[in-house]
């Protein structure tokens, strides 16, 4: 008899409060990782909600896409900028905007690498969104909810000191629900230290 799978919704407490969580039922669902079911879950276009563990997994996948394109684009930008500026006529007696030519060419090469880095992140994000087009509306919704909660729960930035900055101000290091709870504890601790100077 073939195994029957089903989709069920349940109310659960999480960082978004009360959010419907979609679970995939099956005899090995507790052992299966999210990535093994990623393609199958994306086929359910009618899904209205996404659980936070799935969101953080997709967020990590998006970051991998960005890194995968950032590395080659940065190298290409560096090599392209270096090639362009080394082909220019060099006269040590001439200045560019009152600055030595070597310094200007060096800055231009570094700027080309940084431009390649930025373009790689953009291209990686675009490709990720096209590959996971079914999950894109839910991911955008969860992004808005996540950053709203980051802005709501982070420590007061007016007490931010250069010697003691707010830990992970934008929540970039949060990769799971456990990381989010740890981030909340750090924000409360920072607020307490700033308020009572302890």
From TrEMBL:
It is found in: Mitochondrion inner membrane. Keywords: Membrane, Mitochondrion, Mitochondrion inner membrane, Protein transport, Transit peptide, Translocation, Transmembrane, Transmembrane helix, Transport. GO terms for cellular component: PAM complex, Tim23 associated import motor. InterPro entries: Pam17. The chain crosses the membrane at residues 64-85, 105-128. It is a multi-pass membrane protein. One of its GO terms (biological process) is protein import into mitochondrial matrix. Its main location: mitochondrion. Belongs to the PAM17 family. PANTHER family: PRESEQUENCE TRANSLOCATED-ASSOCIATED MOTOR SUBUNIT PAM17, MITOCHONDRIAL (PTHR28021:SF1). Component of the PAM complex, a complex required for the translocation of transit peptide-containing proteins from the inner membrane into the mitochondrial matrix in an ATP-dependent manner. Component of the PAM complex. This is Presequence translocated-associated motor subunit PAM17. It comes from Linnemannia gamsii. The lineage of its organism: Eukaryota, Fungi, Fungi incertae sedis, Mucoromycota, Mortierellomycotina. The gene is PAM17_2.
